[in-house]
Every structure is written in structure tokens, then in C-alpha cells.
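Cross-posted from the bioinformatics board.
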Amino acid sequence: MANAPEKKSYEEQWREVFNQAEMPPSSNVWKSIDQELTTQESGKYRKGFFFYRAVAAGLLLCIAGLSWYILTRPADSDQIVQGDVSSTEQQITPSDEANRESNLASSSSMGSATQTENGTETEYPLADNTDQSSGDDKTTSTADNVALGTSEEGNLTAGDGTESSAKNATQLAVNDAKEPALAAKTLIFPNEEVSQREEELLSDNHRVGRVAALPPDALAMNAPTWADNVDKLFLVPQYRKREVADKEKSGAQFFAGLAMAPSLFDPNFQSQNEAALASADVPVAESFSYALAADGVSNARNFSSNTVMVAEGLENQSSVSLSYGFDVGLTLGEHWSIESGLDYQNFQTVTQTQYSVVDLQSGERYPLLATNAVANQANAFNVASTGSNSEVDNQFQFVSVPLRVGYNVHFSKITLSVSP
Amino acid sequence: MRYCKSQEDAEDVLQEAFVKVFNSLEKFRGEASIKYWIKRIVINTALNHHRKKVYLYPHLDIEEVHNIGDDDVEITNYNYRDLLTIIQSLPQGCQAIFNLYAIEGYKHKEIAEMLEISEGTSKSQYARARSLIKELITETGEVKHG
């Protein structure tokens, strides 16, 4: 008597029932999957595109900011500023005797003048603070000229009908130069055309060119705090200290510019020649091959079917390519600079090939190049010789954000910059 | 389908799983068969899909299911579609654990790790599933033979 078949376990029964069970999904599922994958792929490209756009936007902002900074930066000049200055004399700060005693380092009273103006007797202090400058001979000379009422320019002008007052003030200064100093304090005030920065209004940071006076409004700036205690305000062309300009010149400076550079692009796609191949005697695995079948299908060499031979090289002709870019930089000392920007490179080559690869599914035929060998799944079975050269233009486009360190050599008018 | 309550639900899971498969093909190292790899992705996707919605695996004391007998009904002769209907009628937690243990062949320890539950919970849920299935088959009594 045969043994009864062993009873299957509970779980085995269930597995057996569902082992061959199949329930095909609706066709819409595959469409949905395809759509979602496509959406995700495009999303990846979009993400990359957004990244580059963000970088480009950031660079543009930086460039705009730098441009604004450079354009609005006060013009530095180590030249002597001698503009025509409308000058007016006006008493701006009434002060008591106590205040008058608080003398300024940059100011001193040498005398006063009296003039009848509009029926009122006005006291005009004299500008005589010629030694407040840095001691430059020219400054002293100019100041002396002022004291003598014969400025170098001799074109003292005034607006609003105050020219006569200014001239009188100067003339009176001449007249009274010999007289003892009176109580009025005199301040030589710098010309707003030269500087609006308080730190540059220090007494040792300007030189007297002419003595003039003007209302505070005309200065269009706030008088420095030390000016509160003066009686008279005179406008004086100011010579900026040369050291200031020199200091700024030696500091970090931004620069920006457009760049265009030619280059000869040779990607060296050529495969090994036959001699090298014979010595190497190594087949290239199909999936990693960037090489060509030597003689097409008919003369395929004796390697296994899933390998592709490396054979005669492609004739690759490099051509001149151009790079464009907008670069900004920051000088670091006299010679070194750091540069960045947004560059676009368009490299081009012309490649000639005698082989074509056939897409076995679509039947399309492509010139076989190293660059498309993998993409077209080139192997010994779908590569054939065309018998004639096909010429293919290759373009390689890059957008890059370079970071370079440059070494600059300054000649008289030319700067030679070397950067990797 | 065994992990879902409806055709639409199952198709959602299938779509999500296959998108994961295509996106993860580069990560497939060939250590296991691709069939097993895809199956594992589909199962995990199904479990996660339902885990998002509700708390699926309430703890059931082991003592509560001790009395469930082993005299389950024979199911080998039933049509899988009818059995599928019965599985789909199980509570979500029971359904997943029953599928994983009885049909996929996972151990309770593996199920516990997959579902982040205790091994005891897995066992108790499985026992509960068996009990419910037995009740459903007995109550209806009209499951057609395949």
C-alpha cells in the first residue's frame, strides 16, 4: 500500500496557488511610468540648467556691483587741483571770545580787515594759515600769493554778487597783513570739488591755493566738527596728498573685462596604429571601447565576437576654436591677481572616418567616431567600411566659471598677465 | 495585488516601483537575480505605500492568538482570484504580514525588520490573519474551486 502523499504545509499551499498567478496591469500603467521617467529626466536637466542660470545671475550681479563701485568711486588724482572756484566770503559762525580762544591746529588769525559793505562795517579776517600744509614749498608759495592778493591763477570769481566782497577780502588781507592780528579766527576750508571727506580736511592734508570764502550752503557738505569754533570760512582749493592716491593705488583693486581667446583644440581621439596594436595584442571590450573595427565585418580579426578591434587611427583635424568670457578680478598686490567670471568655450574638430555603424533597430547608419562608438553600440557586427571618407564636424561646448590666479607684469603702458 | 485593496491601488504601487527600478538600475550590482531584486523593490514600495496612509501594524498580544488552531481549511483547490479577494479583505497589517510570511517566504525576524515592528507582533499578526482567513472561508462557504 502506497503511502499517502505528505500533507503540504499551510504556507506551501498558498505559495502553490499564487506561484503561477498573473494579473497583467492595464496598459495605462506603462504609459504613466514612461511619462514619469521622462518628467524626471527633464527635471534633472532643468535642475542643472537652473544651477548654471543661478551662477550666471550671481556673476552678473557681482559684475554689476563691481561696475557700480568702480564708476561711482571718487576719482583719485595725484594732480594738483586748481579749478575755478566761485568764492564768497561769509561769516558763518558767530562765536564768543572764549570760542575764539580755542584755536585750531590748522588755523590762526593774522589780521583783519575792515570794509564798508552795504553801509555796514564788516570785519574780514585774513587767511594766513599757510603753514598748515605738509610743508611743501609750492604750498607755501601759493599761500604767500594769497596773502599778497596775487594768486597764481588770478581768476578769483564769485557768484551772487559777492565777488566784490571776496576780492575786497583778499585785498584787505593784503592791506592788513602788516597790521597786528585781531581777535577773529580764520579757517582755511577746503574746496568741495576736491574732497568731501572729513578725514581729508585735516589741517595737514591740504594746501592753500587761494583764499576765498563762500556760504556753507555752497559747500554742499557738513562742515567738520572742528569748524564750529571759527569765525570765518574761506574756500581754498585743496591739494590732495599724494600719499593718499599712492596708498589706494597699492591696495586691492577690482577690474573687469571681456576676454576672447583663440585655441587649437585637438582632443586626440586617434586610436592606436596597427603596429602598436600588434604589439599590444589586446582586444578592447565592447562596452568600453572607443575604437573602431579594423576592417569592418568581413575582415574582423580573430577576437571573440563581443570585442571590437582597435585599428587604424581616425584622422582628426583640429581647428581653431574660440573662447569668450566676461572676467572680473581683484589685484592682490603689485603683481598678483585673482580672477573669475563666466566663460564659454566652443571647441571644434573635424574628423574623417571610413567606417560607419548601423543601428540594427532603426537601420540608420552613422559615421563611426570614437565619440559615438559607445552611444551607437559599435561592435564587430554593425560596423562596416564605407569605402570613402566621411567628414564629421564635432563641436564641444562648455560653459565654465573659472577661478584663476594671475601674475601681472607691468610695462609702461601694457600689462602682461599670465594665468593658468 | 496581494498587498493592495484594489486594482487602482496596485497599479499605483506598480508605477511607483518601476520608476524606482529604472532609477536604481545603476545601483544593481548583480549580487542577486534581477527578478528577486525587482520583486524586493515592489514589495518594499507596496509596504511603504500603505505605511504612509495609516498605522498598519497595531500590536496584538501573542496570548490573544494562542487559541487559533492549526486545523486550517485546505486551500489548494481554490481559485487564486478568490483567495486574492480574501487576502484583500484582511486588515492592512495582517495582509502584509500574511503575504510576506506565507507566500513570499520571509521569516518573522526579517518581516519584523522590514516593517520595523517586533518579531512577536509579526507572529501575532500572522496568526490573526490565518484566523481571519479561516473565518472568511468558513462563513462564505462559497469559494469557488479553481
